[in-house]
Design brief:
The complex is a heterodimer of chains A (604) and B (309). Chain A has 604 residues and is an alpha+beta fold. Helices cover 27% and strands 20% of the residues of chain A. Chain B has a domain at 97-271: Orthogonal Bundle (MetI-like fold), CATH 1.10.3720.10. Chain B is flat. Classes of the chains: A alpha+beta (604), B mainly alpha (309).
Chain lengths: 604, 309
């Protein structure tokens, strides 16, 4: 009996032992430097043209080399510098207003399999990324390039009109690439450093699964992918063929693939991972005090805001207001409600990640042509920046002013409003959004406005919000490149991101907007026009404007229009919270959230 | 095996096929009824691009047509199609990759749970009301009442963060030890309790007393008669145990960042990655159906008295 028992126990131990030795590789990095990080779970794709995620972009920025790249200069400032191009040339303006750039590639550029990188590889990659066949999420990043509009022109049935249309980009010879833009674009160099503009080789991408396996993943950047255990880890090792290989300090980077923030923290605390890109919201305060040197908050160009459905009627029953008067009243009411929220309380007590209270929709980090912050010159108000004062001291005045405004339209019994229609606040399921929703609910309840909360799972939420089945909803927007237009062109009538439903439904026929661009030299003057007559025209004008100073002034006009509707209620500017080991030096991240490890050193 | 048993098994297999078909059908239509789609994202693509993408993957066809095409591909070609979200990857590859880890995790956890549960249960029964029995009962009561996400978090904090003995990441060397322990504790405790009570029951039976009276040795009584018969209820638990391990691993895989199929399953639903939702659902359904079938057949093997009808 005892013998058999002992045998069984021994068997169990053997099994446990077998379990201990699963899925491992010998860890012989020798003298080579290495770093292990965790940004997110398995990327959907790391094909430079198809990727639309920040973690994917970080991987691609290490694996590929475009004409330009982000780098940190000696003062720690982030700059765009030439990478595969010899220099980032100025464009030449043609007679028709288009602008042509001619780039020369550096000598000695190689793919990771040793073949030469040519201008034709860039031409191929760009045509592919913008093509109707590939249907890449970020294909529209080429909308500034001549020819793009022809490719995407569709007839009334939604069919492509010009199947043979191509971008105006040509490889003049092995080393010369010429590209023509519709007009001068201030953020063009930044686009060149964007993954969708990176080269890929025709024979490599002919295999549709090329970007899912290290053996077929041929790249031209600082690193090559040497391993990909799906859902587990992606390993990058220094590319000996990279032209600047001698400047790359980190030999090996392991990107662990997980999106569980609690697990990330456990691995960070025990020293397994040197950088994690997410921390659990409810542990932020503790981690910040326990790891003051490791807990980092970086700026991010994005805004967390509340959006109204413009077609939601919030006037009290029997207000008697109709048409233009009713819309103007609603705009005034929505703007007033935006002032009832204490943004400092939200960032200091609820979100707690160093966010900045927002007083405009275009986020902090966007700059005017003269280098000043766009949001600081927004709203043109005396004494404060933006469209309303977010100084903690100003909150009480804002609140009182808002209540006074609301009194014009609703019955007030001395403490509370009694006839404000019930609102519904829609948000996607998450503890963080819930906490903010509850604060907003409480703030409104204080003056008698009932707002019910409803949460939906992410994909369902996106669908509901896009189709306008909500009265008030959580929203957020993060820029793809450093130009305010990416916060503004999303609100045109036809835009797929027009969650407010500007110019749609009943609002399509509301003619209460004015636009006067004569002082900017345009023959545009509309009084009492619809959203399509005014805002859509304004955005189109901005996109075709070649004078950068005028263009930025027009963008301020567009944001003014947007904010006057009161439909957008910015709460705070996003930040990117991450934790990095004290032993790591040389790390930097860019405003779009890409993280760079190539110049890192890890001490023991 | 007589013809009656054969007939029974055949009937069960047909029923299993029917079950899987029902699962496929229900999942397919419910999945399409849920709002949102694979190409919905915070930054909307243009309507033209959206339409073209839908046409590329056949999502523009009538739902019934999509359903029959899907069934046909599965049955005739065993083709689960491409993932809509992870472009360039086939669903079958994603499932195979995930299953490698999940199967290892599940099988080891199940074996540990079964073996240690039976041993501990038998020991507790034979030493009834002695110290060892009491210790076993206290510990198993604790394990049975503790959900795996709490157990997982506790083990993670203790072994991976405080003591630095084991990795917190399931993909690392030795990373599966903690998930396996987490996953096996509950079924192990359950089997221990089941074996103990069943064994006590059997030990009180007349035939055991007869055997004892005949002078059969203690070892032979325990292993020849008592243990075998007391395992019948334990075997019936194997089906539910597997179901527990499969579903429990969804949680455990997340806690320990294990690159298993559970992760793919949960993510596919959030992403509305239709082919991947179908693929993972079918694989998990088939697995559970097969294990229940095996457990029922085992039942018969252990106790020939049981009439399967």
């Amino acid at each position: 009996m005892k013998k058999i028992l002992a045998l069984l126990l021994a068997m169990m131990m053997l099994i446990a032992l077998a379990a201990c030795t699963t899925g491992e590789k010998p860890n012989n990095t020798g003298a080579k430097s290495s770093i292990a990080v965790c940004l997110a779970s398995e990327p959907d794709t790391i094909d430079p043209a198809l990727n639309s995620a920040v973690d994917g972009a970080t991987l691609i920025a290490h694996l590929f080399s475009g004409l330009a790249k982000w780098e940190q200069d000696a003062n720690g400032k982030l700059v765009i510098v030439p990478d595969a191009a010899k220099e980032l040339v100025e464009g030449v303006t043609n007679d028709d207003g288009t602008v042509t750039y001619t780039y020369t590639l550096r000598d000695g550029l190689k793919w990771s399999d040793g073949k030469d990188v040519t201008a034709a590889d860039f031409e191929f990659a760009w045509q592919r990324a913008a093509s109707y066949d590939l249907l890449a999420d970020y294909g529209y990043m080429f909308e500034v390039v001549d020819g793009y509009n022809d490719i995407w022109e569709t007839n009334d049935n939604g069919e492509q009109v010009n199947p043979d249309a191509k971008l105006n980009v040509k490889a003049l010879d092995e080393k010369t690439l010429q590209v023509t833009l519709y007009n001068a674009v201030s953020y063009w160099n930044e686009l060149l450093a964007f993954p969708v503009y990176f080269p890929v080789r025709e024979d490599v991408v002919a295999n549709e699964s090329w970007a899912t396996d290290p053996s077929t993943y041929i790249s031209n950047g600082a690193y090559t992918m040497t391993g990909w255990d799906h859902n587990s880890v992606i390993t990058l090792e220094k590319n000996p063929h990279y032209v600047d290989a001698d400047k790359i300090l980190m030999d090996k980077i392991e990107f662990y693939l997980s999106n569980d923030s609690n697990n990330m923290v456990a691995n960070f605390k025990n020293g397994t991972w040197q950088l994690i890109d997410d921390v659990p919201t409810n542990e932020m305060a503790t981690l910040k005090s326990e790891y003051p040197d490791e807990y980092k908050v970086a700026g991010q160009i994005g805004t967390y805001y509340v959006c109204w459905n413009i077609n939601e009627d919030i006037l009290p029953e029997g207000s008697g207001l109709t048409g233009i008067e009713a819309e103007n009243a609603r705009a005034e009411i929505r703007s007033a409600i935006g002032l009832l929220f204490d943004r400092n309380y939200i960032v200091n007590e609820i979100s707690q990640s160093g966010e900045v209270p927002a007083s405009s929709f275009v986020a902090m980090g966007m700059t005017n042509p003269d280098g000043t912050e766009f949001y600081k010159t927004a709203g043109a108000n005396e004494g404060f920046e933006g469209y309303y004062n977010v100084d903690p001291a100003a909150f009480e005045d804002n609140f009182n002013a808002a209540v006074e405004t609301l009194k014009k339209y609703y019955e007030f019994d001395g403490e509370k409003f009694t006839n404000f229609p019930t609102l519904n606040y829609l948000y996607n399921t998450s503890e963080g959004h819930k906490a903010i929703a509850e604060y907003l609910q409480g703030a409104l309840a204080g003056i008698g406005i009932t707002m019910n909360l409803e949460n939906q799972e992410w994909n369902t939420f996106l669908n509901t919000r896009k189709s306008g089945n909500f009265s008030v909803a959580r929203n957020g927007w993060v820029a793809d490149y450093n130009d305010p237009i990416c916060f503004l062109d999303m609100w045109t009538t036809a835009s797929g991101n027009n969650d407010v439903q500007f110019g749609k439904g009943d609002h399509a026929s509301v003619a209460c907007y004015n636009l006067d661009l004569t002082s900017f030299g345009y023959d545009v003057k509309v009084e009492n026009g619809t959203w399509a007559d005014t805002y859509d025209v304004l955005i189109k004008t901005i996109k075709n404007c070649t004078d950068n100073n005028v263009r930025y002034q027009l963008m301020h006009v567009a944001e003014d229009m947007l904010m006057e509707t009161g439909c957008i209620c910015p709460l705070y500017f996003y930040t990117d919270t991450y934790m990095i080991s004290k032993n790591v030096t040389g790390f930097f991240s860019n405003p779009l959230g890409y993280k760079y490890f190539m110049y890192c050193k890890v001490s023991d | 095996m007589n013809s009656k048993t054969m007939f029974y098994i055949l009937k069960r297999i047909l029923l299993a096929v029917l079950t899987v078909w029902v699962v496929i059908t229900v999942t397919f239509f419910v999945m399409h009824a849920v709002p949102g789609g694979p190409f919905t994202s915070e930054k909307a693509i243009s309507p033209a691009a959206q339409a073209a993408l839908e046409a590329k993957y056949g999502l523009d066809k009538p739902l019934m047509q999509q359903y029959f095409t899907y069934l046909e591909d599965i049955v005739t070609k065993f083709d689960f199609g491409p993932s809509l979200k992870q472009r360039g990857r086939m669903v079958i590859d994603i499932i195979t990759d995930g299953m490698k880890t999940s199967a290892k995790l599940g099988v080891i956890a199940a074996v540990i749970a079964a073996v240690s549960g039976i041993v501990l249960g038998a020991v507790a029964a034979l030493r009834r009301n002695k110290l060892i029995d009491k210790i076993v009962m206290v510990i198993t009561t604790a394990f049975v009442s503790m959900p795996s996400f709490i157990m997982g978090a506790l083990l993670l904090a203790l072994f991976a963060v405080s003591l630095h003995l084991l990795p917190a990441n399931g993909a690392a060397k030795g990373g599966l030890v903690l998930p396996i322990i987490t996953l096996s504790l509950y079924p192990m405790a359950y089997i221990t309790r089941l074996t103990r009570s069943s064994m006590l029951d059997v030990l009180g039976q007349d035939y055991i007393r007869t055997a004892k009276a005949k002078g059969v040795s203690g070892t032979k009584i325990i292993f020849g008669h008592a243990l075998k018969n007391s395992l019948i209820p334990v075997i019936t638990y194997f089906g539910p145990m597997l179901a527990y391990i499969v579903t429990g691993s969804l949680v455990v895989e997340r806690i320990f960042a294990v690159p298993g199929i559970g992760k793919a399953f949960v993510q596919s639903i959030t992403n509305r990655d239709y082919p991947l939702i179908m693929g993972t659902t079918i694989v998990l359904a088939v697995l559970i159906v097969i294990m229940n079938l095996v457990s029922d057949i085992l039942y018969k093997v252990v106790d020939p008295r049981i009439n399967l009808e």
